[in-house]
Model the fold of this input.
Amino acid sequence: MNIAEEINLKGFVEEPIDPTLDLYAEIDRLKKEKNAVILAHYYQEGDIQDIADYIGDSLGLSQQAAKTDASVIVFAGVHFMAETAKILSPDKKVLLPDAKAGCSLSDSCPPHLFKKFKEKYPDHLVITYVNCTAELKALSDIVCTSSNAVQIVNSLPADQKIIFGPDKNLGAYVMKKTGRDMVLWNGACMVHEIFAREKITKLQQRHPEAKFLAHPECEQSILEMADYIGSTTGLLNYTINSPAKEFIVATESGIIHQMEKANPDKTFIPAPPNNTCACNDCPHMKRNTLEKLYLCLKNEQPEIDVPMEIIERARLPIERMLDISAKLGL
Ligand code: 13P
Ligand code: SF4
Done:
């Protein structure tokens, strides 16, 4: 099997690693040798977060990808994030430790169906959540993330008609916060849809002082219970600034690594999922491992490739988001 076939089949190129190798030191050495930067999302495993040059939410990571002067970007996240980095920095080599690290939310919105949906509303502006394919971004007017969706919608004239996709939960949250009506695509994230209201209520009874934090990708019935709703960076900052000592966290469990590091005297409890799931791990995010990250930096594979025609159409909606965010100081 050649390299391309192996990546197609497994998502990465498998290779034996000397068990005595100090992976941290070796990754550091390769990073310097190749002028590479490691960008990691908060949902990555703790060991990957610990070796990253920058850890952040989707907005912070896109801002870093747009401004880095590294020659190689290793994106420890999922496919749409690495694609966004490639769109913003097409001259750089963008690597993803496991090419099969996808996203259920992105998958819930196939571009050919979204195109037909969009054609039904010709006078609407299209705002897409960054958790979608490059092709979908190319069909959009403005991209947003969970940390700027409300502000982006508010920056538009009040009578502007809007299609919002692919996340119906974030869309409903934005409608509530802005008081505006939008046409929503019916997509959702598999991780944020599994929280169980009754189990959270029971947990709150056992921890009456705990603050309940939720990501806006959660369903409305869960968001109604929250003391604070925000992107992963927003949730992390809330734990730092709040005098509370206990927090129940309704988002992917990877963020708890940074919450614990930033607040060693505080306790973080993952919000309980329903009975169909054992934990709040994103199976896509967790496909990346430290070993795969090492191999991808060493072999410069798997590499993200986005056709130039898509890059050209998808860049403007992302840049519009970055410009609005910069003007608003986000
Ligand atoms: P943020 O990074 O905007 O918090 O979004 C979380 C997420 O689901 C990323 O996949
Ligand atoms: Fe996609 Fe949800 Fe995983 Fe984020 S947590 S990558 S939205 S499936």
Observations:
- Residues 13 and 318 are 31 Å apart (CA to CA).
- DSSP finds 16 helices and twelve strands in the chain.
